[in-house]
Amino acid sequence: MTAMSLNIVSVAVAEATLPRDGVLAPDEKLVITWGGTSPNGIASQTVTVDGLAIKAIAGPYGGRYYSCKIGTWPTGVHTYVVSFDRLDRRKFQQHWHVYRRRCGV
Fold first, then answer.
1. How far apart are CA 65 and CA 61, in angstroms?
2. What is the pLDDT of residue 39?
3. Is 11 inside any structural domain?
4. Residue ranges of the chain whose pLDDT lies below 50
5. pTM score above 0.85
6. How many beta carbons lie within 10 A of that of residue 101, not counting itself?
7. Burial class of residue 68, CB neighbours in 10 A (0-12, 13-18, 19+)
8. Rounded Cα–Cα distance for residues 21 and 15 (Å)
9. What is the pLDDT of residue 90?
10. At 11, which CATH number?
11. 104 in a domain, yes or no?
12. Per-residue model confidence (pLDDT) at position 87
């Protein structure tokens, strides 16, 4: 199996509850969503945020989409890593920002 045979796509961090305004704030619960495919299936997967393992991964939905609630995070830059464990141990890593809300918003 080559690294190109397993794909992690469409990864996003979003607000987990309504109403959503597109601003990730420290008082909001967040969720990570992603898609994953492999011609030989996906044996297991892990998600970490700032090095902490997130245990409850939901899915697949529609055969390829997953999500996990990651709770609230303080203002600042955070890093998540989505890993699918196969022979090639494919990983996707990205940063996201949590912003402090302006007064009155």
1. 5
2. 73
3. yes
4. 1-4, 103-105
5. no
6. 13
7. buried
8. 8
9. 65
10. 2.60.40.10
11. no
12. 56
What range defines the domain where residue 63 resides? 3-98
CB 99 within 8 A of CB 56: no
Whether 105 is in a domain gets the answer no
Look-up: residue for tokens 């890093």? 79
Q: What pLDDT, on a 0 to 100 scale, did the predictor assign at position 101? A: 63
Reference 79, options 97, 98, 94; nearest CA is 94
Name the H helices within 7-103. none
**How many Cβ atoms are within 10 Å of 72's Cβ, its own excluded?**
13
- pLDDT at position 53: 93
Q: Tokens 């909001």 label which residue?
A: 28
Distance CA 13, CA 77 (A): 12
**Running DSSP on this structure, what letter comes out for residue 100?**
P
Within a domain: residue 16?
A: yes
From its phi and psi, is residue 10 left (phi > 0), alpha (psi between -120 and 50) or beta?
left
pLDDT for position 103? 46
